[in-house]
Amino acid sequence: MNTKNNILVIAESIDVNATSGAKANVALINALLLCNYTVTVLHYTRKAILLPDVNCINIKENKSSLYYFLSRAQRVFQRVTKINISRNLERIFGHSFTFYNDSKSITKAISKHYNNHDLIITLSQGASFRPHHALLSLPELYNKWLAYVHDPYPFHLYPKPYNWVESGYKQKEQFFRTVSESAKYSAFPSQLLKEWMGQFFPKFLDTGLIIPHQQLKIDVLQDLGEYNSLLDENTFTLLHAGNLMKQRPPFVLINAFKKFLEANPKAKQHSRLLLIGPASYHKKNLEKESVLLPQLKLHLQSVPFEIVNTLQHNVSVNIILESNSEISPFLPGKFPHCVYANRPILALSPKQSETRRLLGEKYKFQTEVHKVEEIISHITELYQNWKDSNLKLNRPDLQNYIGLKYFKDQFEKIETNG
Predict the structure, then answer these.
(1) Hey, which end of the chain has fewer CB within 10 Å, N or C?
(2) In CATH, which of 3.40.50.1110, 1.10.540.10, 1.20.140.10, 3.40.50.2000 is domain 6-214+403-417?
(3) Please, are residues 44 and 126 in contact by the beta-carbon 8 Å criterion?
(4) pLDDT score recorded for residue 162
(5) C-alpha–C-alpha distance, residues 140 and 336, integer Å
(6) CB-based contacts of 190, cutoff 8 Å, min separation 6
């Protein structure tokens, strides 16, 4: 591969306001451009999206296939009978009819638009991996394929406390084993994720590169418009931005914050804990907590990324909250944005986690999510630092790690090894 090579990216979504996975996809695409690669993007976002300096092609759903007909017939059957047969069908076929139709639609677009590209990167989101499944139908392209694996897959291979076993899990596991053995290169956002997935699919240990999530560079806004009430620069504000899933309850953090206020009564007038993002599983309990604790501010719905990014740059502390577990191999998508925001990070993560591996043992403001007293101690010290106007992360090493030089170095390994 030449230094200015031609890359085809197949992305499930590039809508940055839809999911954290889409943000990570666009950030990676932008990083490729900044490294002077020529990039074509096939995306299945289902709406027209243009990225600067990129040939963006919106993949159309194939509405004339058997899978399309079966998926619509299933929907009609379920609507009429009120009987959900999805799980039973996935036990038999491994995936839904919609999944297979989407995969075939993507395969068709790849065949149409592939033009002797030097490298093909598949990017997905959530627990889907449709682009990866699509490329399996084109074995002639395996030797140019880099399969990016953003999270563990399938769900039953997640570490505890995640304990969901999907219908068709055996077929899903075989699908991903085939991906691991077919793609010439694989990439992971974290070292721990590569090692974790390598337990189940050993080929990843041979082919895997570490390409951390990149910063999605956008301007910090001067005015938040309808979201202005979320920001008060004269207040000691701890921010958690992101989806509060069932496995990430924030109640120990809230309890620690409450006890911090009780021990520091003067802080009650100018301190708050701000939680932004969906939290359907915890919503009722969070709303009850906010009634009893006026310093707990909630906005339990999705917020445009430019708003979140501006808040991260202007609050006192950014929080990374992970599950109470022995290991967390994930690199949170917000990690690069928190690093570049240059505000202290309060990391509530297992000892064995990618977040704490990167922050390092000497980083002060990190502990496990269940350790109330340590969280109180960290908040207290951060509050004192805020009063002393001493709230900077100052980690150029992390900025370098998630920066362009390290990113380019990983792709040069592909160029060197061919």
Answers:
(1) C
(2) 3.40.50.2000
(3) no
(4) 87
(5) 35
(6) 210, 212, 329, 330, 331, 354, 357
